[in-house]
Structures are given as structure tokens and as C-alpha cells.
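Entry 14. Two folds queued back to back today. First construct below, sequence then C-alpha cells.
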Amino acid sequence: MTYLNYAGSCPILPEAEQEVERTLTEYKDYLYSEKGIQWYRTKVQQCRETVAALLHVSHPSAIAFVPNASTAHYLLLSSMDWKPGDIILSSTHENPSIRNELLALKHRGIEPQFLTPTSSPQEFLTSVHHALHAPRVRAIILSHVSHVDGRIFPIAGISVLAKERDTLLIVDGAQAVGHIAVNFDHLNCDAYFFSGYKWCRGPLGTGGLVVSKHFLENSPSVRSTSTLTGQYPASRFEIGTHNIGLITGLAKACENINQEGLNTQGLKTIREVAKQHLGEMQEMQAREWDGPHAPGILTFESQHHNAIMEVLQKENIVVKPFTDYPKGETPAIRMSWLNEADTNNVRNTFDKIRQ
């Protein structure tokens, strides 16, 4: 199998997998004793500090651990006191699970509006600026990196616009964390969530959610919930007891990224090779905008979409096809890779398509 869908799911780092096993073995000596409870709390706090270091979060207690990005998004939406007539701005590039949750709010009289990304970051900022002038825009929910084509949205600029209109900004970092540099404090958004098992290469069933003080102040259901003395309200997004092995595995993966740094040169090299092959095939075109792109993703479109997918499936080449998105976004095919991926796999993929 030639796997070119790492934006969908990545293999767990060996170091993270070892950390899961080591932690669960250690837990057996404590279980739910008094010492075990203290050991558990200490472990979770250490994991918060590790994730906070990677994401540049000033207060580690602002981090909650969740099973995945979709759960984080659902919890955030559920915590807000929505009123009929409220508007949520988003984009046509959001993950289906995010889009479906937004559409589900329509039965409560809440209106999601999906902006189509333009040809440049500045044009997109302009479209957001215009949309924010509508009355009762309560929140913007937007990806940091588009899972459709890897474009990096201008989150810091959108945050400035949102603050001017007293609108919450919630960011989906599923395709960003571990892929590009993320600085939560610099982005100045109200909430940020991510999956641990994509570019972070943590265990399946892990993720993180960062909530700002401003978000909590605007979420009555969270603010009114009692907490233990000294406990930050972000913990209210953590439902029940964690699988502490998975959480430490995620923290280990984040620590590995933080220590080694984001080496994206290999990702960029593969992307350049892929674009070169695309340029040699007139019937295929890369999906890009005049702005920054995450280096591990390249999406292309072709009039022969179905025929191309048949070839790829026959050759056991795994990519991500987009066929059920809004008009203008589909059909398209996304390829994604890791730093250590074999460049020849990309070349061979396009050779098969060319045949």
C-alpha cells in the first residue's frame, strides 16, 4: 500500500506508544487509591504543561484533554447560550463533522453562514470583515489549516476583526498542530482545539482544547458550574476519568515535536516534486491560493476525477477524495505525506495517473 493520506490519520510515534505502555504499567501499582488519585492528577497536570509548551499557552490550566477535535467542537457549541437569530460564520473548507454540528443548530433558529475562501488571505479578511457587519454574529468557527487544500487561514488578522465586533473566534487546529507552528497567545483566539492522532502522531482517541478566559466569561453554562478550589474552569470540558496512558502518549508526542522542532524541509521538497508533476499534466490543476500553505498537503482537481480514483484504488494508493462538498470545492483529490515519506511514492503516483 502507498499511503498518502497522513492528514487523515498518522501512525503513532514509537516513543509515544512506549509512553502509553509504560504509564499504564505504572498505573497498576496505584489504581484508585489515595496515592493513585494524586499520581493521576500530577500526571495530567504534567501533560497540560507539555502541551502548553508546544502551543505557547501561558496558562497550562487552560488546556482540557478530549478524545478528538469533533468532541471538542461539540462541547464548545454546547457550552454557549445561543439565542434564535444568532449567526455563526464559518467556511466551506470545514471538516464535515464541524459543518454538520453547525447545521444542526438551525433547528434552534441559529444561522450558520459558510464563506467561500477567496484567492488570497487579504480578500478572505475582507469577506470576513463584511460578514461581521451583519447583526448578531456571535462566533466565527474556522480551521487554522484547511483540510481541503492545506491553505493557512489568517487567524491573527481574523482575531482583530472579531475583537472589534465582540465576536468569539473558535479555531480548529486539527491540520495545524504538529504540522505548522502554533502560538495560541499570538493568535489571540478564544478557543483552539486539535486532534492528537494526525500531525502530532499521538495515540488514536486523543486531542486537546484550549479555552481563554474571555471565552469562559461568555459561556454561562461553564462559568456557573462549580469547580474545586483552585481548579481552572477548562477542566469542565473533561468528562470523566481519562485513559491516562493515552494522555501521556499525546504529551510525549508533543514533547518530541517541541524538542526536535518542526522540520518541514522534507515536506516542502515532496510538495515541490508533486507540483512539478502536476505542471506536466495539462488536464490537472493544483488547488492553491495566493497565500501560505501547509507543506504536507497538496490538492488537485481534474476533469477525469473518477477515472483517476479508479486507477489509484486499483494500484492500492490511498489518497483523500473530496466529492460531497459545496459546489466549487469538488471534485478534488488530496495527497498528504510525512517528512520521512519516500518521494518516489509521489512520483510513482503521478506516473500511474499519467498512464
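Second construct, same run, same settings:
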Amino acid sequence: MKMSGGPASLNMKIALLVLAILIAGGTLLYTQNLVTQLQEKERQIVELYARGIEYVANTSSPETDITFLFENILKPIDFPLINSDPKDRVVISDKYDIKDIRNIKYDTSLSKKQLEKFFENKIQEMDKVHRPIYITYKDSVLLQKIHYGDSDLINQLKYYPTLQIIIAGLFIIIGYIGFSNIKRSEQSNIWVGMAKETAHQFGTPISSLMGWLEMLKINYKDNDKVLDIADEIDNDVQRLNKITYRFSKIGAKPELKEKIVYEEVKRVVDYFQRRLPQTGKSVDLTLEGDQNICSELNSELFEWVIENLIKNALDAIENKKGKIKINIMQNRNKVDIEVTDNGKGIEMKRRKDIFRPGYSTKRRGWGLGLSLSKRIIEVYHRGKIFVKTSSPGEGTTFKIILKSC
């Protein structure tokens, strides 16, 4: 059974991302247009100021008082402005009252040379943003240059879209994390409910079977064949009981104890080796590696993971001679467990999907085995499980990483 929610969810995420980019781009363009218009208005004010000075210089006597003439032009100016000579120098006669600058803060404790250097740097900064406006005498002699920068309003507008996008991005991230946690919690509740209901459903027939087994053993003590059959039935009933226990532990905090990893895996391998002939496949199932590595495990749940990986490998094997190898290795303070098969393999684009609840390439089954395995290893044992390598037609290697004792 294959789930169709994955592609739809991906398309929705892509659509939201494209929408977010369009909104961000539209905000940037709109704000940039406002900034350009404001900059043009400020330049018009500076041009008017410059043409006024130029007009006075070309038509008036030196004694003409131009204070009143420019009062209404200078007052509205709220952006930094510097009048310099043709060589970009500011005349500093009184450092406490410099006539040729507006809206520029400076340190009055600086010396005259330091102030000249300060204004020289300011002029260079302004000229990088806006080209200076020239004031000429009779259109030939350069009298002054007017340098100006952006007002506080323009500077704020420049950074406003970025700030807006950052805030919106933070809200999106927080919202995404919140919704993901809610979704994860809902999925977890579904898992827990399903597991506990399964355990409850198994409980009644198992109890009944165990009672009938006891009666069978008591009444047919002399019949060896019946006793053998009863023992095999007992083994399967015990296995059903173990499955019930496993499901009942989902949603509860399992008890972890120090165990020898090799021994835990070997029990599962031995169980499958006795039943491999019944599968109709010729499969060589082997266990290798360090036999003394210790890790904190819940035996019932950990065995379930190994069973799922072996079953998954058996289902993937289509060759006449299948191979499944389990290797246990010490890696510093970690335990590495690799389960390798020579089955049909997994395509690269499907590797992330195989651990998703409901995903399966088989016609039968709910596609829960690997998802449960991931939950058991990563949530309960604080380890990792992933596809280490896989090639279509060649096989797959699953890897489990656990903390060693």
C-alpha cells in the first residue's frame, strides 16, 4: 500500500514557498520604489538650494544677505548635507558652529585637522550614494560642491523590508515547528491507540490458548508426539504474548537494561534460521562481529527492530540465493549494527519515504514495520537508524547506531 499524501504535501510546501518569495519580492520592489521617489525629491531640494546659491553668486553683489532667501529651503532639509569647496574641503573657522554642514553630528573635542579628516570621509561616503551637485559661476568656474546623504526615513525604509521578511520568516518557522509538533503528537497518539488496542485484542485469545495448552499437557502426558506439538504451540503462543507485550509498551517509557548486543541479535537470528526453510527461499542468514559489546536496551522492543529489518530483507530478496548479513561493531563509544541484503535495493528518491508511516512497496501490509523500528531506536533508545547504502538490483544496508555501555 502506497500513501499519496507525500507528493501532495510537497506540492503544498512548494506553493507556500513560491507565495512567500512573491510576497517578499513584491515588498522589496514596492519599498525600493518609495525609496527612489523620496531620494529624487531630496535631490530636487538640493538642486533648488544649489541653483539658489548659484543665482545669488551670478546676479547679486557680495554684500547681499542671502539668509532670508534660503531660510525656507534649508529648514525642510532633514538629511545630511555638506557644502565644500571645489577640492572637497570644508571651511572650519569655528568648530562649534560650522556653517557648511547640516544634520551631521560630530565630536567638538576633535582638533581642526581631525575634523577636516572626519568631513573628508563623510564626503566620500555621501558621494558613493549620491553624486555631488556643482555650483558654478557663469557656467564655467566651479565655486562649490554640495554633498548629501539619505535621510533617516529613507534609511529606515531601506531596512524595513529586510526586517519585515525576518520577522515573517521567524513567524513561519515558529508556526511550522508548532504545527509539526502538533502533527507529530497526533500521529503519536494514533500509534499509541492502535498499539494498545492491538495488545488488548491479542490478550483474550492468548490467555485462552495458554489455558488449553495446560489442559493438553495434563491429559496427554504419555503421548510424546502430542507433547512435541504442544511445545511448538507453546512457543508460538509465547511469541504472540511477546508481540502483545511489545505493542503494550508503545506510548510508555520502556525500561532499558545493559545487554550484550550480540546475544540479543542472535536470539532473533536463531529464530529465523529455524523457520527459513518454510519461506521457500534459499537464504543464507549470518551474524558476525564483536560478541562483547554492551548497550542499554529493552530486549522486547530491540528484538522487534531486528525482526523487522530481517523481514524487510527477506521480502526484498528476489534471487535464488539470498544473503542477509548482520554485523556488530564497536565504534568508539557507539555500537554500529549493519543489516545487509542482496535484494532489489531502494531508489535514492525513496530512501526518506521508507520510514514514513504507511509507505510500502508491497501489495500487502500496512507499511508500519520500518516506521515502528525508527520510533523504537530513535525515541526509546536515543539512537539512529537509516539506510547506509542501497543500489537497485544489488541490495541494501541498514545501519543502527546505539550508545555503548
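Quick look at the second one. Residues 156-231 form one domain. The chain has three domains: 5-150, 156-231, 254-403.
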